[in-house]
Each structure stands twice: as C-alpha cells, then as structure tokens.
Amino acid sequence: MVDKIQLIKELEFKATRSSGKGGQNVNKVSTKVELRFDVSNSLLLTDNEMVRVFEKLKNRISLEGILILSSDSERTQLGNKRKVIELFLELIVKALHKPKRRIKTNPTKSSKERRLKDKKAQADKKRLRNLD
After folding, report:
1. What domains sit in the chain, N to C, each tagged with a CATH number?
2. Strand (E) positions, 4-130?
3. In the chain, N or C terminus with fewer CB closer than 10 Å?
4. Rounded to the nearest 5°, which phi and psi values hold at 96?
C-alpha cells in the first residue's frame, strides 16, 4: 500500500475564485481548491497500481494522465484543501483495493429445504387463487 504522506507530497494545488457559499467574500477571495495528481509520473505507484488507478478512475483522469479534483464547498481555502485531500485519498484507497475472490460453495441442506418450503408456499398461494 502507498504511503499517504508521501503521496500528498506529490500533489499540486491551485486556488481560484469560488462560486460557493461566502456572499460577497466569494468575489474577492480565492477559496476554491483544485488538486492535480500526475498518475503517469508518480514515483510512489508501481506499474500495477498505476494501471488499477487508471482503470478505476478513468473518468476523472485527463488525457495527459493527470487526476484533477476540486472543492469549493467550504468558506475557506484551508477547508477546501482538507476536503479535496480527503476525497483524493479515499479515491486512491478504493482504486487500489483488490476485492476478495469469491469461493464457490454448494448450498447447505437447510437452504435447500428453505427454498423448497418457500416454493411450495408460493405454489399453494397461486393454487388457492384459481379455486373460485
């Protein structure tokens, strides 16, 4: 797994004027934060991890291989920076997570009995409808 602190050091931030909450302050202060992460040139991701990130986050990655996220929901630049870093780490962790492979098993005796009992009850219900 990738070290989160080292990963944050590879991020680039850009602040711009926001359209979110803040009233007239929005027009004066650059509170919107845009995060850029160059996936293709990352020193921390292995080739396999890079491929997984590209596959899982392909809709958020530009043609140049840069993951771009932004936040303007908070009133402060620092709040938006925290939010966008949190979102970034969450996305990376989800992208790098490998789901366990399901092991096929045979149905148990009780599950077979339960299925047949439910099937019989459904058949009885439908049979009673036709007795009119």
Report:
1. 4-96 (3.30.160.20)
2. 12-16, 32-38, 66-71
3. C
4. -85, -10
What's the Cα-to-Cα distance from 66 to each of 11, 54, 86, 126, rounded to whole Å?
10, 10, 18, 59
Amino acid at 131: L
DSSP states of 42-54: -SSS-HHHHHHHH
Q: Which residue has the tokens 């908070």?
A: 74
In this prediction, residue 82 has a pLDDT band, given cuts at 50, 70 and 90, of very high
Furthest-apart CA pair in the chain: how many Å? 77
pLDDT at 110 over 90: yes
pTM over 0.85: no
Q: Which two tokens stand for residue 52?
A: 């997984």
* DSSP code at position 75: S
pLDDT band at 91 (very low <50, low <70, confident <90, very high): very high
Task: Give the distance, in angstroms, between the CA of residue 62 and the centroid of all CA atoms in the same chain.
Answer: 17
Q: What mean pLDDT is predicted for residues 90-102?
A: 91
The 8-class DSSP code of residue 41 comes to T
